[in-house]
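Show me a record, fold above all:
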Amino acid sequence: MNMKIQWFVPFLLLIYSCSNTKNNEPISPGNNFLNGVDLSYVNQIQERGGCYFDGDNEKDVYQIFSEKGNELVRLRLWHHPIWTKELYGDEGTKMYNDFYDVQKSIIQSKKNNMKTLLDFHYSDTWADPEKQYVPKAWEQITDINVLRDSVYNYTFSTLDRLGDSDALPDLIQLGNETNCGLFYSDRPENFPSCEVCNDKNWENAATIFQAGVEAVIAIEKKYGVDIKKILHVADPQYLDWWFGELSNYSVDYDIIGVSYYPLWHTAISFNNLPQHLKSIGTKFNKEVMILETAYPWTREGNDDMPNLFGDQTPLPNYPFTAEGQLNYMRDLTKGMKEVGVVGVVYWEAAWIAYPIKTLWGTGSSWENCTYFDYENKSTIVFDYLK
């Protein structure tokens, strides 16, 4: 851990003085709305020397988010992401977003009184609407029943190991942005299709989702906890179609999860989003949660990696400024609470411009969307949590 010496000792004490400060208590709509952030890059940044500040005080980032009022931390999990280590060549000492990295993050989050959401990508790398790669360990599978058992056993064993270390998450996401299903990108010959856009193999996809659900249910019974089970689609316009098709099969999930990036997802307007999500929840009799959102506070970057947001036209009344970002999060959260949506999670709120290695280069493509300015100090966006 490359941190300034005056912060090194307290940080180690924080890690090793483990106590379960928040149990897996049931989450229900109304009185338990969750304000959340995805912090999946944080360990890599802090371990390699990146620092965060609240005012002039350097702090562990989990502590900053907790003290500001954040209630939930979302974390991605890849099956065997050896590439995250290989990117560093001879300097690579560990993988990121694997089991041990996630375990560390969950423990840190719980120590800071925040609930956790674990996002199973069911892949060795990024899964989203454009790509869903089969984990290398499963490439030789040719039977849907074997694939079902592999998903069940992997999900169960992962959560069981977390349970052994008092690090069970409070919510589980079974797949990431699975608009067209799972395991379809460069699928090996004879691998069972779980693709629902072209192949329309909803039966296989539903079998896999239910396998994940059943693994979570088994963990709930073993540990005597309640864990919310989430399915996730990007872009609100696809929710009716996707969950309508899935409703033809028996998948016992709890929450409809959606990614909503207003600069990309324009079919449902910002003003119409609350009522749209309310109608989706009512139609399918499920809770609804925004699992990813973001909004830039500046057009300018802070490193050489091109940013994904900033060139677009801002939403009316929400300029690309710190105040615009704050008002976007304040109004989005208010609208979701009013219609019974159970939470809003901001994606990668701490992926600052620091020279970590990614698939796209060194640095961040998101620093202008974080909750920190270009001195890595917390900004006024945190005020929406009040």
